[in-house]
Amino acid sequence: MFIEPSLSSRRQSERKGQIEVICGSMFSGKTEELIRRLTRAKLAKLKVEIFKPSIDKRYHDSDVVSHNENTIRSTPVHFAGDILLLTGDCDVVGIDETQFFDEEIVRVVQLLANQGKRVILAGLDMDFEGKPFEPMPRLMAIAEYVTKVHAICMKCGDLAAFSLRLSAAREKVVLGEKESYEARCRKCFLDDKK
């Protein structure tokens, strides 16, 4: 279980920046955990800013929405660098669907943490082929905390770490939900890829 850092230090001179990564497959609860952590930061009266890539309009144009339909206000951005312009004096920065940003997100996240901000990221760690989904591996390497969450395999009911694409599309990024993807354990994922 993730033990949150102290939420009490509000003065900029006392804050220590850090990076937290929440990763896993589709339907594993990444966004749910991101919303939980950001909501707790708000309850602690910290200034929170939340972002998502503008291409992700699956549930809502601007809000971050989990598969369980929990929601939190966010700002969609086209480029990772836009986040730097919009964080101002906030204490906590949340970013959902981080895998959809380019490599610039790594520099942006490091700059934010170096400014004393708590940066919480959620994203897929592997693509539909079971390969590392950049830039998530680089973000995991520089993070102070990495939480890997698991879904339930829709074929056998075991813990799942893979996202099986149900269509024949070969592009790396294909937005979709339950009609396009299912969570799979390693064995079922490999069996279905044959």
TrEMBL record:
GO terms for molecular function: thymidine kinase activity. ATP binds at G24, S25, M26, F27, S28, G29, K30, T31, D96, E97, T98, Q99. The keyword RNA-binding does not apply. It holds the Pfam family TK. Its main location: cytoplasm. The keyword Transmembrane helix does not apply. Its EC number is 2.7.1.21. Zn(2+) binds at C153, C156, C185, C188. It is found in: Cytoplasm. The active site is at E97 (proton acceptor). It catalyses: thymidine + ATP = dTMP + ADP + H(+). Keywords: ATP-binding, Cytoplasm, DNA synthesis, Kinase, Metal-binding, Nucleotide-binding, Transferase, Zinc. HAMAP family: Thymidine_kinase. Homotetramer. Belongs to the thymidine kinase family. NCBIfam families: PRK04296.1-1. This is Thymidine kinase. It comes from Algoriphagus oliviformis. The gene is tdk.
